[in-house]
Amino acid sequence: MSRIKLVLWVGFVGLTGLWLLAASGVFAVPHVFALRAFMLQYTGLLAFAMMSVAMILSLRLRWVERRLDGLDKAYRLHKWLGIGGLVLSITHWLWVEGPKWAVGMGLVERPERGQRPPIEDPVAAFLASYRGVAEGVGEWAFYAAVALIAVALVRMIPYGVFRKLHRLLAPIYLALAFHTVILTDFSYWSQPVGVVLAVLLVGGSVAAVISILGRIGAARRIPGQITELIGYPGVRSLEKLITLAPGWSGHQPGQFAFVTSDPREGPHPYTIASAWEPENRRIKFVAKALGDHTSELGKRLAVGQSVVVEGPYGCFTFEDDCPVQIWIGGGIGITPFIGAMEARARQGWGADKQVHLFHATAEIDDIALDKIRAAAAEAGVTLHLAISPRDGLLTGDRIRTAVPDWRKASIWFCGPEGFGQAIRQDMVAQGWPAARFHQELFQMR
Questions:
Q1: Is residue 445 part of a domain?
Q2: Integer Rg of the chain from CA
Q3: Distance in angstroms (rounded) separating the CA atoms of residues 203 and 219
Q4: Which of 148, 336, 371, 424 stands the most exposed, by the fewest C-beta atoms within 10 Å?
Q5: Residue 125 belongs to what H/E stretch?
Q6: Residues 127, 133, 137, 142: what is their CA dihedral angle, to the nearest 10 degrees?
Q7: Across 279-353, where does the E strand assignment appear?
Q8: Lateral strand order in the sheet of 324-330
């Protein structure tokens, strides 16, 4: 989490600094309309930069994922950039309209506007000739973008509807790119801020075109067929075993993939709950009925059905130098640890580490729990069950009591975000280093 916060703030402060180098006159503005001209450039620049980076992050690029510590973190940054772009776009619009309102209410006077000098640079003159069109396009694109970003933040809207509407942001971005190219102060393009803006504009536009064509993640898609379905009604979960066609690159324990079972619904992310064995090419997912899509999986899926699996993604791969690891799976967050135990038992993965697995759950399915117990025994993992109606909530104190060497341990957590943060804060308060806490932010919207 700290890494993506650093990227966000370094980008914000860095771009602000580059803009100030190009717009030093902002410190000597004579009136509000002169300030308005500067602030339109500044807010427009930042809003478009955030949208550009968000658009690039949507491509699910491997090198970006590695540098941001996982696609889950990249998507969290994508969300923050969307919110930031929304706030700055509204601020930009208020700088367009606000001074006009102030004039209408008699709060300020509009300065006399002299005749504009002729534009000698042919490129600048060409861009200026489209100014009116760019203003109109930008205004309507702004209204559409605000509406769509707001929709994306309303979690009550079904995922299928959200996905279809969210894809409309790509063509809207291209409209805003046209607006930005035409209306950005021409002097900026020959300065560092213009170079950065041009790079973001090209990268974002390419990403938008890829999105419009439906090619995001296309190179990592492998067809497959559902070969087994097992329901666990006590925990409202469904286990899917899929046999993949040749081409899957393999995966590490803890990674996830996008699965498309209905092209109209699109891909959904699921943690991989199995080790990879190339000789049988089988991969397992466990989904819990948490939303509109997952609640209907038992009715929509059937053995023999064709699916498409895209991945693998994620850096929640248990890689560290600690001799002891504490795994915490809250509810359906147990799934990455199921795959890790299978890899440990069958392939000797992580055999040099002492592992304690805490499974915290409010629901019980005896068959599912028996499978977890058997997997832990086979993998040499010490299992601690925390069934909240019976045992109360899992706390840092209970973890420290159960794991004598907790000071040497790293913690790998997958489950409700607030639960994870509570455990982290409790452990850090006891002098345990926060850098050893790894949390999967498994929310893609």
A1: no
A2: 26
A3: 19
A4: 371
A5: helix 122-128
A6: 70
A7: 282-288, 306-313, 324-330
A8: 382-387, 354-361, 324-330, 409-414, 437-440
Judge if 75 and 34 occupy the same domain: yes
For residue 166, is it within any domain?
A: yes
Same domain, 229 and 116: no
**Looking at residue 348, what is its pLDDT?**
87
User: What integer pLDDT is reported at residue 215 of this predicted model?
Assistant: 94
Which of 191, 212, 233 terminates a domain? The answer is 212
pLDDT of residue 292: 52
pLDDT in tens, 166-175: 889 999 999 9
**pLDDT band, very low/low/confident/very high, at 437 (cuts 50, 70, 90):** very high
Q: Is it the case that residue 364 has pLDDT exceeding 60?
A: yes
| 184 in Cβ contact with 44 (< 8 Å) | yes
42 class by beta-carbon count within 10 Å (0-12 exposed, 13-18 middle, 19+ buried): buried
Q: Is the pLDDT of residue 212 over 80?
A: yes
Phi/psi of residue 286, nearest 5 degrees: -125, 125
In the structure encoding, which two tokens stand for residue 232, read together?
């666990």
Q: Which positions ≥6 away from 75 have C-beta within 8 Å?
A: 57, 441, 443, 444
What are the pLDDT digits (tens) for 278-301? 999 999 999 886 655 555 566 788
What's the one-letter identity of residue 293?
Answer: H
Q: Tokens at residue 145, please?
A: 């973008």
pLDDT at 291: 55
Closest by CA to 241, choosing from 278, 279, 281, is 281
Q: What is the DSSP string of 74-118?
A: HHHHHHHHHHHHHHHHHHHHHHHHHHHHHHHTTSS-PPP--PPPP
Coil/strand/helix, residue 129: coil
* 36 and 183 together in one domain: yes
Least trusted range by pLDDT, from 77-86, 257-266, 333-342: 257-266
- Measured CA to CA, the distance from residue 220 to residue 215 in angstroms comes to 10
Core vs surface per residue 377-416: b (16+ CB within 10 A) or e: eebebebbbbeeeeeeebebebbbeebeebeebbbbbbbe
**Average pLDDT in the chain:** 91
> In whole angstroms, what is the distance from residue 167 CA to residue 12 CA?
26
Same-domain check for residues 172 and 248: no
Report phi then psi at 110, rounded to 5.
Answer: -75, 130
pTM across the whole model = 0.89
Q: Which of 312, 307, 311, 282 is nearest to 223 (CA)?
A: 307
Domain total in the chain: 3
Q: Which residue has the tokens 């932010």?
A: 441
